[in-house]
Amino acid sequence: MQVGIVGIGHVGLPTAAALAHLGHQVVAMDSDSEKIDALNHGSMPFFEEDMEALVAEGLNSSRLRFTTAVAAVADGAEVVFICVGTPPRASGEANLQAVEQAAEAVASVATGDLVLVGKSTVPAGTGDRLLRALEHYKLKVKLTVVSNPEFLREGKAVYDSLHPSRILVGSDSPDALEVMRRLYEPLLGEGGAEWIQTDIRTAELAKHASNAFLALKVSFANAMARVCELAGADVTLVADAMGADPRIGRSFLNAGLGYGGYCFPKDLSAFHRLAERLGYDFRLLEEIARINEEAVESVYKKIEDAMWNLEQKKIALLGLSFKPGTDDTRLSPSLALAERLMAGGAEVVGFDPQANENAQRDLPGLKVAESIEAALEGAHCLVIATDWPEFKDLNLREAAELMTFRAIVDARNLLDGDAASAAGFSYVPVGKPSIKARREGE
Ligand code: UDX
User: Fold this and answer.
1) Exposure string over 397-413, b if 16+ CB within 10 A, otherwise e
2) Residue 173 sits in the same domain as residue 311
3) What gap in Å lies between CA 224 and CA 230, rounded to an integer?
4) Contact status, residue 191 vs residue 51, Cβ threshold 8 Å
5) 198, 232, 248 — which closes off a domain?
6) Are 141 and 113 in contact (CB under 8 A)?
7) What percent of the chain has pLDDT over 90?
8) Active-site annotation holds for 263
9) CA of 370 to the centre of ligand 1 (A)
10) How far is the CA of 259 from the centre of ligand 1 (A)?
11) Considering 45, 193, 320, 356, which has the largest number of Cβ atoms within 10 A of its Cβ?
12) 6 within 8 A of 105, measured Cβ to Cβ
C-alpha cells in the first residue's frame, strides 16, 4: 500500500521505517530540510536502537523516501499518518495547532480519497474536531479520519513497531477500518498483535488512559518507597511480592527518581485538562504528578544528607537521559535533580552514554564529562540517576580510588549495595535501608 507520514520525530520515523519494512511504499515528510537531508544520507536525528539499520533497509529497497514536500506524501496515498508534535500549552492542554495544519496541508494536496490517521497523542474529541474542520475545506476527494494511537517506548521504538502488543484503531467508518487492517495485516494473526477496533473517541481516550495508568504505577512505587523508608522495609521486595500477582504485574513498579520524557508528564496534564473540560475533576492525575516531583526532592535530600553541606562538593551524576536507551533529555528527572543540586551550591558533573549534548542544551551550566572516570575524578558523591545497564558493571573499587569521598546515592536502585559497601562506600538506595561503608578488616 502507499502510505504517507507527516512529521518525522520519535513516532513518525519508527512508524515510517517499520511500515516500509512490512512491504509498504512509504513517503515521510518533515518541514525541517536539514533533517531530511541528513536522513537521506543515512544520519539519524536522534539515537534509537536499530533505527539506522531499519531506515537504511527502507532507503535501499526504495520503499522509504524522505521529503519536505507535503504533495509527495499525499500523492496516490491510501493512508496518511499525522505524527506531528502536540506540545503542552501553558495551561497544560495539548496544543493541536500542528495537527490542524498538517491535516489542512494534506487535504489541500490530496489527489484521491484517503484515510487520515491521527497517531500523535491527542485529547479525546480531536478526531471529531478534525472531521468538522475537514467539512470547511474545499475538498475534491474524500478524507476519512481514524485514530491509531502509538504505544512505542523510546529506546525500544523499532522493536515495539515491529512487535506491538496491540494495534488500536478508532473510526466510525467500516471502510477506513478495513484499510487499516490491510495495512497492519503482516503484524496480526497467530502470536502477533491484538487488533482492537473502537470509535475514534474511545481510541483517543485509551491512549491517555494507558499512559496515565503506567505513570500511576510508577508513582505508586515511589509513594511506597517513602513508606518503606519510614518503616525500614524494602520497596523492591514489596514490588516483587505485588508483581507476582498477575492481576498487578511487576512492570512499572520500580521506585527511583520518577518518570520523565516527553509523553507521561504532558499526557497526564493534557488528560487532566480534558477531563476537567468535560466536567470531571480527575484529581488522581494531579496526585500522580505530585508524587513524581516528590521523588526528585527525596533523592535531593538524600544527597544533601550524605554531603552535609553541598557547597564545594562535586556530584558525579551518572545518567542524564530520562531513561536508558535514548538520548532524550526532555523533562528528564536527572536534569531536574541536577538543577536542584546546582541551585543548592554543588558542582554537578554529568555523564551519559548518549545524552551529554542534549543535557547541556537543556540545562545550560551543567558540566558534562567524556567518560564515567572523568565524572568520578575528585567527586564527593556518585549518583545513579538513569539506569543505563553499563553503570551496573561499574568497577566500584576503581571508583573509590578516583573519588574524594566515598558516597553513593543510587536513585535507581541499580547497584549492588553490599559490593558498594565492600568497596568502602556508604550506599543510599531508594525505598530500602542504607548500607554503611565497610572499612578494612570489617
Ligand atoms: C511512554 C509509553 O510507555 C509509550 O507506550 C507511549 O506511547 C510513550 O510514552 P516512553 O516515554 O518512551 O514511553 O517511556 P517509558 O518506557 O514508558 O518510561 C517512562 C518513564 O517512567 C521513564 O522516565 C522511566 O525511567 C520511568 N519508569 C518506568 C520508572 O521510573 N519506573 C518504572 O518502573 C518504569
Assistant:
1) eebbebbebbbbbbbbb
2) no
3) 10
4) no
5) 198
6) yes
7) 90
8) yes
9) 26
10) 6
11) 320
12) yes
